[in-house]
Amino acid sequence: MVSFDNTEIAFESKSNRELKKAHFLFSVLGKRWMVNAGKILTNIAFGIHFPVNGIIRQTIFRQFVGGESIEDCERTIALLAKYGIGTILDYSVEGQEDESSFEATEKELLRTIEKSRHDGRLAFSVFKVTGIARHYILEKVSRHEPLNAEEQKEWQNVYDRVHRLCQHAFDAGKPVLIDAEESWIQQAIDDLALDMMRKYNREKAIVYNTIQMYRHDRLAYLHHVAEIAEKENFLLGLKIVRGAYMEKERNRAQEKGYPDPIQATKENSDKDFDAAVEFCVQHIHSIAICAGTHNEASSMKLVSLMRQAGIAPDHPHVYFAQLLGMSDHISFNLSKAGYQVAKYVPYGPVKKVVPYLIRRAEENTSVKGQTGRELSLILKELSRRKLS
Fold this sequence. Notes:
Layout: H1 7-10, H2 16-29, H3 32-47, H4 53-58, H5 60-64, H6 74-82, E1 85-91, H7 99-118, E2 122-127, H8 135-142, H9 149-172, E3 176-178, H10 183-200, E4 207-212, H11 218-232, E5 236-241, H12 246-256, H13 266-282, E6 287-292, H14 296-308, E7 318-323, H15 328-336, E8 341-347, H16 350-366, H17 370-387
Parallel strand pairs: 1-2, 1-8, 2-3, 3-4, 4-5, 5-6, 6-7, 7-8
């Protein structure tokens, strides 16, 4: 029986010193004004070339990031593997806008895929299409607007990069996740992912697209692509998440005067997330899922659905995933019970990973109860250790 309250299992990999540092960090992240101030001060510090790399590296970077390079992540990969948890190496450099940067990012992504070929500890590879493409071209393609000759060439370059990454994953025999992004560029990403699944998911789920269930249209989209996959005889690979751009989405919809794509309530997001997972479990032979969630109820719901359907914990079509530095009580307890679990392990130069770190900090202040739950579990474990 899985229990997310077992802190001995959850924090077995952490020393008392590490737990106390994590407690301090989550205490800070629980205060929105401190997160907002830290965001502003960090941007100012980088702008005036103030040496803050060391401070960031020793605090939030150490909690949520594996290192600055693939090699730096080895300690984290080995530690997770010791407890039966796989790694998803995530090169978290984003916001680039030029071809040379896209080429450099593609080269690094190919390195992560190549490492997964020879390293069974790596469960998936992953990439964001905005790491290898401009927002402008993705938005224009998503709106189905005609492209001029130069834009057509640029879009072909994007397609070719995605194709090379998925081809490399196919050759390595290891799955690759394509992350979801903002709604106004997501259609182009969905179309790319679907095309790659048609090519590479004939025998095994290699390419996974991501659906964000905080969008009210995604459950219908899931049913739609499932029909396409069944009709065209390929496996559907999906990472199911709630989402990461809610405030940005709402603000843009209000500013530009179009219907808000976000669910009216969190309860609706939760309901659609669980409905999506249940649908995938019902079609487990044709759909492979990675449930990316820090929600205990949703994780337990998937465990229950698998039991009811007689699906083994180590079924190749079901993975649970959480971010490094968060929800260890879910990851480690699921792994201990025999379920397939992987942690996103971001890496990259400190300055270039800051946008990712800011999102993690903001997420911990905006997700109701997330930080409080992390803090209470850490204190519970420290108390247990003191008594024992």
